[in-house]
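dude i think i finally got it to work??
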Amino acid sequence: MYTGMMRYKQYLHVPSRSLFVMDPAAAEQDLHLPTTAVQCHNRYFRMWQNLYGKQVWGSLKWKAATIPHTVQQDTTSCGVFVMQMAKEAIQSFPAIPSFNMKNSPRDMCRLREEMAEELLSTSEKDYCSMCGLKEVPRDKDIEAVVIDWAGA
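look at this
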């Protein structure tokens, strides 16, 4: 990644020709990161066009932008924020999303549970949702497998 830091989330919004960069750990952002990201993406799109002869998004004039968003209150909820931001971006498309969510420890726990429930309920029914095995091993000494989703 161009910044060397993985916490920044990027969102290419084609209808507005904007590249949004959000940092879940900081509410106020200047346009330095999005501007740098636009330059890197433009180089990538030009390289793609030169390499494959296909003009995908290289001809678009991208602009740097930020979206006001909720700030993560701890050091362990970045995955929840990323998943929630992605969900909001998909659900609000083609409008620019609003990334405002409750961020208390209790809210993060609730969101983790909701995400786990949704992922498990949409998993293939012929396979174990936890390990991917077609048949769950049976052992007389194992009574149950407990996964602490709230602590994950």
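The CA atoms of residues 6 and 95 lie 26 Å apart.
im so relieved honestly
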